[in-house]
Amino acid sequence: MADISTSPANFIVFEGDLDSDWTERFGMASALAVDTEAMGLIHGRDRLCLVQICDEKDNVACIKIGPGQDSAPKLKALMEHNSIEKVFHFARFDLAALAQNLGIRVQPIFCTKVASKLARTYTPRHGLKEVVMELVGIELDKHAQSSDWGKVEELTDAQLIYAANDVRYLLEAKKQLEKMLKRENRWELSKSCFECIPVIAELDRLRFGQIFEH
After folding, report:
1. pLDDT per residue as tens digits for the range 74-96
2. 112-119 helix and 128-136 helix, angle to the nearest 10 degrees
3. Distance (Å, rounded) from C-alpha 33 to C-alpha 8?
4. Cα separation of 162 and 144, whole Å?
């Protein structure tokens, strides 16, 4: 039976950017789990509303991105730090959203969705809920997934809990997927795929579709 998620070790919500203390705290990590929430899925039309970050000690920060905001210097420095691996689930969307809205070019990255598709070839189910359920043993509540993230001043507790939980188990899922990929001799292939994601995300952001088709 899967466990129900508990509260994070530390949880904080910021307006617009991280503060210096949390930037330093996250800056000491070797890997960070990252996710975003937006008004929709079309870059340039649907703005970025929230960025969630979690480290290996279960410290979670949610950063509210206001209408018209186009920069977050501390977040940018952290996301572009070469020595910190950023772990996403479906990094393709998050990278494009961060570049489009805040001018952030995230590197280096690991995508648990891509990793799942390469490692868990025994199932067609590669959503975050399914990956975390199998590999971490935690059942995520996804009821707040489709909601109004644009009301940044009035986000509900349910929305913030949902947002936090979307990053809290990514690092453990990443560890399990890495083991599977190495076991099945697909680790080098996965790393090559991760290196391609920023280019694919940029093509998405610039509205280039199916350029590799005949």
Report:
1. 999 999 999 999 999 999 999 99
2. 70
3. 13
4. 6
